[in-house]
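Subject: complex prediction, re-run

Hi both,

The earlier run crashed halfway through, so I resubmitted it with identical inputs.
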Amino acid sequence: MTTSDLPELAYACPRDLGEAAMAIARPGACIYAGGTDLLVALTERRPWARFVREIVDVKRLDAATGVQQIGERLRIGALVTAEELASNTLVRREAPVLAEAAAATAAPTLRRRATIGGNVTTPHPAGDVATALLALEATVEVMDGSAVRDVPIAAFIAAQAGTWPRQQLIVAVSVPTGRRGAFEKAGSRSSFSRSVAAVGVVMAEGGATVALGGMRERPFVSTAVAAAIAEGRPIGAVLAAECRPPADGFVSPAYRLRLAGVLIARALARAGRR
Amino acid sequence: MKPSATVRITVTVNGRVVDRVVPAATTLVDLLRSHLGLTGTKFGCGVGDCGSCTVLVDDEPALSCLVLAAELDGRSVTTIEDEQDERIRRLQQAFVATAGLQCGFCTPGMILAASRLPPDADDAAIRAGLVGNLCRCTGYSKIVTAVRRAGRRRVNRDTKT
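This time it finished cleanly. Structure:
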């Protein structure tokens, strides 16, 4: 094979949210932003990609661009790339856990394309950026018909289970400012590797918020682990009860659990020093 | 706004303006190789894992297997065939002089990815910049050396003028 040889598809490039809402409502329409998920799925002929008839390129939607500080929150357009998250001064200062997660993801060429909206939408067990956003208890601005609705990120991710999520247009993600936090991951090599386990930790008044990637079907926030940490209890047994770590040819569930514990300790230590 | 099965694009490829009507689901690597006959860009994995198809889009390294031609209207693309790009040419010479290639399949992608690194990048920065480009022959050492030498020549030339 020397070409991508994609199936025949239609292409639309809406210029505003109204046009985008109409385009996405068409049967077989699929949102296209960075393409690091969709074009891979189409090229590999993944089962779900057989239902795609039309690519809706959302990259011209101005409403989904840029990083702004609004009061005590950062509004991050859904099209902001991992590279921008990693280098943006506001994100690095106000939400370091997110900047670190973005910097730890993939390779430079992919980071320049992959968007924050796509990372939240793609149903991967260990989206690094999604894990950091869970730790920040981010809010997702989702198009609902022709209106925009705010949804807590944990609810957004939970609601996608079993659905075809790529028809839900995220306009922006908003996170609180000034939260100390840290992100840790380990993959099968030191970089350009999907996370075997990923941990996002954000310090708040009542204790830490702990988000885990790679330990269930999707990243999630563990209040039980956070409670054990706050009470100074060992977290090993709590982690084992909370997680459903998958096994593959390289990584056993026990290894993944142990790794998660180590990464949590590292993230807490760094977040506490900030 | 209606969806369309074909898209008309005007793209500047290696300084030459190209006007084409292509099927909407045409990747940039297919545009280059199949439509324009520019086979210097290599199709490796097709899914963003290997970096062999790296080109420049608006002067920034991009994986041409993960970009659609349809979104490139009005933009510019640079490939290994660009004879005017000084940084690419200097890297080509350094790869040859250093034996930074064996089978050569990854080389165009390596060179394009390296071409926009800062000229004074140290080995760690070069490795970080090329982390998405796989080579199955060289073991990378000579590739890093080639990129470092090409950068040094550029720094030397810049300080002279």
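Helices of chain B lie at 28-35, 86-98, 107-114, 123-129, 141-160.

- K.
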